[in-house]
Amino acid sequence: SKMTGKACMTLYNAELNSARERQLLIENDIREGLEREEFDVWYQPIVDARTQAMIGVEALARWPRRPGGELKPDDFIPVAETSGLIYALGQFVLRRACQQLMPLSTLKLSVNISPAQFRDPEFENKVASVLGTTHFPARRLQLEVTETYVLENPERARAAIANLKALGTAVALDDFGTGYSSIGYLRRFNFDTIKIDKSLAGLVDDDEQASVLVSGTIRIASALGMQVVAEGVETEKQMKLLRLAGCDQLQGYYYSAPKPLNEILQLPLQQQG
Ligand code: C2E
Ligand code: CA
Ligand code: CA
Ligand code: CA
After folding, report:
1. Among protein residues, the one whose CA lies closest to atom 26 of ligand 1
2. Whose CA is nearest to atom 43 of ligand 1?
3. If you count Cβ atoms within 10 Å of the first and of the last residue's Cβ in the chain, which end, N or C, has fewer?
4. ipTM value
5. Are 198 and 232 in contact (CB under 8 A)?
6. Does 22 sit in the ligand 1 pocket, CB within 6 Å?
């Protein structure tokens, strides 16, 4: 039998309520998790495409000690963003990563920054303060931001990027190829690096047209003076094609999944030094 309109509404409300409840539950867990230090930072190697030496790492948040079971960043980062907890979580990741990488003299560090964090007018000062307290050299730090952020408030984005570069820190455009902006528009923001998203980089070994698109993108970005990193490199074939297409750096499961720092340092990847 068909449901009555009222029954439908009740079901709909129940679903909305449970989505909202899940959100509130995770939000509360994040707050407690930050207090109880349940979060960790894991790292994934970034390799020089030519020499295959590890020249840096990307820091990625992990939540292994959550009492209700581990959640992946794709499940907790969005909740942290909408609840404002991303300020505390982001600051934790940045501070912890700078502390951990500090003793490793040449490895570069790349840290993800949410649009909400970058929007904070105090953001650059907070970065400067972490650099000050950890003594991590600004020139070894790169911050990764997405297109969403620059489109939302181009004026603030330009100012923030300029301020960060004045500190000596590099700024990368993350997930390039997932949005709608052209590289021509994005170049105005003076990114040091663009990171080609895995969905685009993964096309390199598909058909002729797809690979022309990937290599064209890489060529333009390089010609505009940006370093190009391909993420999501999973096979030797992709590695070779992306290197041939002109990527400067490569990152992906082919080299290693993200792991705790001590495990990353034991990988059979030669380090630049
Ligand atoms: P992202 O910044 O694009 O990070 C790359 C993601 O791709 C990571 O997922 C990484 O584990 C995964 N990945 C790396 N290599 C490969 C590969 O070869 N194949 C495939 N299929 N995937 C690969 P992860 O760690 O689950 O993080 C997901 C997203 O969550 C990140 O995407 C980033 O947007 C966000 N995130 C993670 N940590 C932080 C953080 O500390 N702060 C902020 N704001 N966002 C974070
Ligand atoms: Ca990233
Ligand atoms: Ca990315
Ligand atoms: Ca493919």
Report:
1. 73
2. 112
3. N
4. 0.98
5. yes
6. no
